Amino acid sequence: xxxLLLRAPSLLVDPRTxxxxxxxxxxxxxxxxxxxxPAAVRRASRSARSVDCGDVLLAPxxxxxxxxxxxxxxxxxxxxxGDFGAWVRAVLQARAGCTAADFERAVEQGARASLAAGVxxxxxxCSTAGFARGLARTPLRHWALREVLDAHDPARxxxxxxxxxxxxxxxxxxxxxxxxxxxxTVSPALFAAAAALARRRALPVAVHWSETEAEVAWxxxxxxxxxxxxxxxxxxxxxxxxxxxxxxxxxxxLIHGNHPARGEPQRIARSGAVVVHCPGSHAWFERAPFPWxxxxxxxxxxxxxxxxxxxxxxxxxxxxxxLARAAAPWLEPRALFAMATEGGALALGQRGRLGTxxxxxxxxxxxxELRASNARAAFEQLTGVGAxxxxxxxxxxxxxxxxxxxxxxxxx
Length: 412
Fold this sequence. Notes:
The protein is 36% helix and 25% strand. The chain is α/β, with parallel strands linked by helices. It folds into 2 domains: 4-60 and 357-408, Urease, subunit C, domain 1 (Roll), CATH 2.30.40.10; 62-347, TIM Barrel (Alpha-Beta Barrel), CATH 3.20.20. α13 (317-327) packs across α14 (333-347) and α14 (333-347) crosses α15. The radius of gyration is 21 Å and the shape is globular.
């Protein structure tokens, strides 16, 4: 196949690399080379299908480190505010009224909405069977993190594990992984079995961790509103249960992490795990400010996610960037950009393959309608007011175009 050359006035290869008057050479769906300077671009154009992307900035596609696309089926049917228990009850009630077709449709619609917003890869928690059919009609790069839980009921442990074992498979644009739901819904035995399965198959793992004070109270003391639902408490912090199971190791995404105890951020940093923050969902539940400084001071890598349309307004990671800046205006725009690109890649064990335009990476590219004189100005706009998208490519294939691109043979 003839290589594809994407030309633009500026390229943001990663949070550290800015290129002017260059191009991306794409071969086999991956970035083969960064071409620097007009003369080199002209030479490369002789043997490639050349696309003049116009007055845009080329940058990596956003990596959504946490979503539940299937829950788009119950969008608009869950309450806002701080009563998490009421929200869970509403989710269970609404889900019970959905069909497999509803979930399949929600996954497809969520995937298309994600791509239109510049999300080219998503770490998606999956608990229904129809997600693969919904995704098959879209080019979104997708990791299916299979949800598993037993509510600390030994009678459910073997069945939960058997179900997820049968479900695991791979496809060209879909990766697989595991999501033991949370320490308060997964028994130590199921955590250990999931950890063994993840190690054996080299799977990324995502765990909802320390999201609410209620789960912390039950795990540590057997107290709070969960006590009547879950029975005897393990009397341990959630991170301790995760670590004892052998899961506190990369690639692991710890979702939410709103209530870390002293010393836990340092343990997470040493492990290489990533904490995923979802600003839109955080605002939905009117939660106390996220402990940004606690994690950053400890050296924890952070990523951004949207969560689901049952607890957020959109699947737009650009919106999550703007919400994060509004909540913590002292954050460096460059660091936020890294959370929306490289951070998600780390959470999935895909460093160097996602969230970057470096050679060898998947050619998942955004063309932002943005003319910046330097990287700092680009980070300011991308994480601030944002910029319209002119085009989106996944694996070097055009999947979203806001307008016609001047070209001499654009890839189809």
